[in-house]
Design brief:
It is a single chain. Helix content is 8%, strand content 49%. With 226 residues, the chain is mainly beta. The chain has a ten-stranded antiparallel β-barrel with strand order 1-2-3-4-5-6-7-9-10-11. Strand 4 and strand 5 (116-121) form a beta hairpin. The protein is globular. 31% of the residues are buried. The mean pLDDT is 91.
């Protein structure tokens, strides 16, 4: 069986750097987790008048107002089968600021309907985002968000691009320093850069039986709607 990212990239997956492949081939049947630790050299973005709205995302583990340089960072990745039988990978990101730990979390699945990755942002699954994957010229991986949806009751709302942030993620592996490089930017067509972080980290693969996956790796509520 293949990971959701292998399924989305198809033959392109083998063009990734071996370390990038290892990071994105996480699969529930392997009973492993990835623990990444490093430093965000820069966390920036968001004009002053946007900060109150950005702050509203703290409880949802989507956005936070703190910015800075040299911020310790941790990423935990867990693979599991969700209640709907879907192979799922959770991304639990923690940014250790001086006065608070902030989170930017997500759960990802492969969408049979969209034939690609679907990213449920935050600690719930109310706002799925389509993700387009590609391989960079240096064997890194590039992820770009496409259409974003919100669920209000039984209604599914698609938001125009001017109302949401468009995310671009680029990960590479630096063989000289033996670490991963990450650069994430969320931009809006009207307000410019909302959020950006870039830095480096190293990765450890650890045993992780399904029953030992921590509770915070799962969303508060699962939703199979795409």
């Amino acid at each position: 069986m293949s990971s959701i990212y292998e399924k989305a990239l198809g033959d392109k997956f083998r063009k990734l750097h071996p370390m990038i492949q290892e990071k994105f081939q996480l699969f529930s049947a392997d009973h492993q987790a990835l623990i990444c630790k490093g430093t965000m050299d820069e966390i920036s973005g968001g004009r002053w008048f946007m900060r109150p709205f950005i702050k509203m995302g703290i409880k949802k583990n989507v956005t936070f107002p703190e910015r800075g340089n040299g911020i310790p960072f941790k990423l935990e990745k867990y693979a599991f089968i969700d209640p709907f039988g879907r192979e799922t990978v959770s991304w639990i990101r923690t940014f250790h600021f001086k006065n608070a730990d902030r989170h930017f979390d997500a759960t990802m699945v492969y969408s049979e309907k969209g034939k690609g990755i679907l990213d449920y942002l935050g600690n719930s699954q109310a706002s799925p985002v389509g993700i387009d994957l590609d391989v960079t010229e240096t064997g890194g991986i590039r992820m770009k968000s496409s259409q974003q949806h919100f669920h209000l009751g039984k209604r599914r709302l698609s938001l125009p691009s001017k109302m949401v942030g468009q995310a671009t993620v680029r990960e590479e592996f630096d063989e000289n320093k033996n670490w991963f490089l990450i650069d994430v930017t969320v931009k809006n067509a009207v307000f410019g850069t909302i959020f950006r972080y870039k830095g480096h980290f190293r990765m450890e693969v650890v045993p992780m039986p399904a029953e030992e996956i921590p509770a915070y790796a799962f969303p508060i509520k699962f939703d199979a709607r795409e």
